Amino acid sequence: MENLELVQKVVVVLICLYLSSKIIKYIWSFLDVEKDPLVVLVTGAAGQIGYALVPMIARGAMLGPDQPVILHLLDIEPAADILKGVKMELMDGAFPLLKGVVTTTDVVEACKGVDIAIMLGGFPRRKGMNNKDLISKNIGIYKAQASALEQHADTNCKVLVVANPANTNALILKEYAPSIPEENITSLTRLDHNRALCQLSDNLNVHVGDVKNVIMWGNHSSNQYPDANHAIVNIGVGHKLVKELVADDHWLNTGFITNVQQRGEAIIKARRLSSALSAASATCDHMRDWVLGTPKGTWVSMGVYSDGSYGIQPGLIYSFPVTCEKGEWSIVQGLKIDEFAREKMDALEKELIEEKNFAYSCLH
């Protein structure tokens, strides 16, 4: 008899809890107010990456499924008609989160009220051009765009530079947008990070979603260094280090690095066009994790303003492993760096110092 009464009481409690949750959900539906739209600038929006990226933003892949957006699409005058076509397609996409689209060739108009700036536009690398040639061509572009962001964007605007050389372009932008917090100016190394995850998952014959915590140190360049020393794999009953599962340090220090470094060239050779879809996806990944946060126990690679961590010269835009929470990134501290990794990291630091010095000589 006592057991029956206990069961009845438990049933009553469960019914009450169920009804309470329904009532709370009903009341909350009246209180749930749509977020204000964020203004997202995409420069070079008429290009391949821009064409792949803007529907991802409009669908919520970058800022979340409940965040409305207004897109500001900027490109050069010869691409004005292409921008109009991109806008037509966005309208035809009928994206519920897309609250407006501005297409323009005027950098001032494009930067007004911007909350997030995705800098895809830049002078393209042409045959025979080295990084110094590219830097000298991009200085004027980034000076003008940085000045417009400085004067017209939101004071807490988050900036992601994608156009190469991304690290140094970001540094130029910082120079001419001094009121934008230094921690709000970043460069893209997430594409290289994702490529490294892909190479490891392929080698181990596991799903890419089960591999995490690879690191891209330093610069997005032909000398980039993907580091798998701290990467781990979900094996179903916990995690194991990639190094233990691969059990081939020679490959991790040679073929793995080369495959990541040369992946872009392999894609160009295969499709006769440069990476666009994967670059757009990586751009979404970078900004989504920055704004919404990285999963617990996971870090990602971002080009950020160096604070001297791991002995890297302060003031460079250098790629580090970071975690993100509440719109802020933090460099992962205390990782053990072996001699091979130290040599690679220092070489990339030297490369970025040389780029910085050359850029500043052009500026002044």
From TrEMBL:
Superkingdom of this protein's organism: Eukaryota
The identity of this protein, by name, is Uncharacterized protein
